[in-house]
Amino acid sequence: MPVWEIHWLNLRLGNGYAEPGTRLLIVCGVDRCTICPNIVVTQADGEMSESFSMPATGSENGSFRFLSDKKEEQTTSPSCSLSVSGVSYTVSERAGPWWDLPSYRKRWTRQILNEVSFHVSSGEILGILGNSGSGKTTLLDAIAGRIGHLGTLSGDVFINGQKIKQEQYQDCFSYVLQSDNLLSYLTVEETLTYTAQLALRRHSEEAIRKKVSAVMSELSLTHVGRSVIGGRVFPGISGGERRRVSIACQLLQDPKVILLDEPTTGLDSMTANQIVVLLAELARRDRIVIVTIHQPRSELFRVFSRIAVMSRGELVFCGQPGEMVDFFSQCGYECPEYCNPFDIYVDFTSVDTRSVEREAATFSRMHNITSSYQGSAIYQSMLGKMEQSLRVSNKAAIPFKSKESPSSLVKMGVLFRRTMRNLSRDRMGVLMRLSQNLIYGLFIAFFVVRLDSDVTKGAVQDRIGIIYQAVGASPYTGMLNAVALFTSLRAISDQESQDGLYSKWQMFLAYVFHILPFSIVSVFIFTSFLYWTVGMHPDTMRFLCFSAVVLVPHIIGEWLTVVLLGVVQNPNMINSGVALLNIAGILVGSGFLRSTQQMPEVFQWLSYLTFQKYSCELLIVTEFHELNFTCNAVFWTYLILRGVMGIWTRSEREFPPPSSHRRLCCGNPAPNPQARRPKGEVVEGVYRRYPPAGAKEHPLRNANQQNGEHLRRRMRHPLKSCLFSQRGEPGDRADESNPRT
Predict the structure, then answer these.
(1) What's CA 644's distance to the chain center, in Å?
(2) Residue 142 near residue 87 (C-beta atoms within 8 A)
(3) What is the span of the domain harbouring residue 563?
(4) Total domain count for the chain?
(5) pLDDT tens for residues 480-504?
């Protein structure tokens, strides 16, 4: 019989390691397969130099047993055992909806898990069956220490007879969630490489590359190593391959216990079968694999080492597949011929809630089966194994995962490179991030076209409107970027932070450093186009100040959204909340809608907490300082006020003469010596004409003079800032000491 040499670095066998160069004798047997499929071996005695593949696809059609010519050892006892003892979980819920106050005030306690206990050893795969709502996922969360603080959890988890503490859960278990949280624009090899760099510190780049290559070979992912993961927008690898990538990310740390929440959900029957067979092979390599599964194929019945059935939070049965058939047959529930035993036994233990009568009958049946199991020899044997593992004097150490995490600075560098590479490959996303502010600037320029210096044509109003739009829209576009980009990163951050790879704040800083150059370029493109197109103050330093002031609200809006996304899971709620906060800041802090001094005192204090207040003040000072305006409608205003309305709002010396109406700035007008002296005087702020000698005053004119104060207060002319140079109301008493010419 030939002797073969394994040429694979650190090949893990069913009961140990095969180091490079170890000579192994391969003997065919009739037991289960203990070698992974498609292992390439080469003959060692020199008779053959070519390589070929040894298939091992079945669990009963022949396998290979490895015997070393150096020494021969056989492991008779499992290297690791997991015991779950009396795990219960209850939550307190409202009795009714929030709009029904009487029932909403009442609470009731719901039992999610009820005294669940089982024992599983290394080399075994445990399949947990049950209908929806039976507590399968909650049980895995409780075992992995990720149950949260919404309810009350009791019970203990033991590994090798030692109780697991709360801070040790993260280092003992690898948890593969139901959803595959992967970055869409990275390849399979890049995904595993970045994960290995976050988890393994003392490994060189070459060691990490070999580790990734070994895991990819173990899960048959070598052929898709350079393929992108893909997502909703563009295709990538298949669903089964995505699931294997998620499993591979957990295998990089060599865990002894792997928990998988419904890994076959969303996959076709053939792919789901391949995933379960792969997990069974992983379990036979000295690991414990616990899987929750929905509607498995009947061919997988013999693949599982142990099968557990749950219903209404209770463990109805847990034992070997052969024991399962005998147990249900003894209870009077035999599996019909040519039927899937998984479906039949799950139906027997489910509770039908379509009517009260059916619910009572099916619940009674489930309770009877549970009572029969707790009184059976299968249950007592399981309890005996648990007690035996607890009574062992020389208990084995807890098999922690490879915990060689790098420093925080190194992690931030890895996260920054991963985020940059993933988001930079999204060409449409990069284009939208750089152009969305520019597109908004096009709309503003389309409506404004070109700013005028004439206040009668909206010179002041248009400039204030542009400042208002720039300050208001800048944080909103930042919020849109965060909602579109950080939501997918948040799901990955939540999972990897629970796996102990890094902290959430490190992911936040990596994202912040990534968006800074994009934000600067995007805002600079927006301000460069808008500022010079509409004709704002033509000064380079003022333009740079304008760009910097617009950039700060943009970054604040995006950072605030990222922080809120880390707290609130619903992105639509964050979208609405940040938009309302931005609008409130504009209304309270900018002073555009109402002057800050005229607001209630509470809002005046709140305005100091808004960044919009300081942004608007800086932009207004930057734009209006030393900027001259023209008032080309002063002459016509002069005629209207003097000839038609017959009243004066100020003394004549403050009124511009007709000869100087073509060019006038907003400062004090120069006196015109050629102006004729009016035939009247200002009395209490109202101009009164002198009546002709001997003429009687008209009663209507007297009425107008008496109502002059009323008319004066109602008049609000838009050019009063241009017509009057002194501050105060239009009816202030004039200075009559100044002689008129």
Answers:
(1) 66
(2) yes
(3) 408-624
(4) 4
(5) 888 888 888 888 988 888 888 888 8
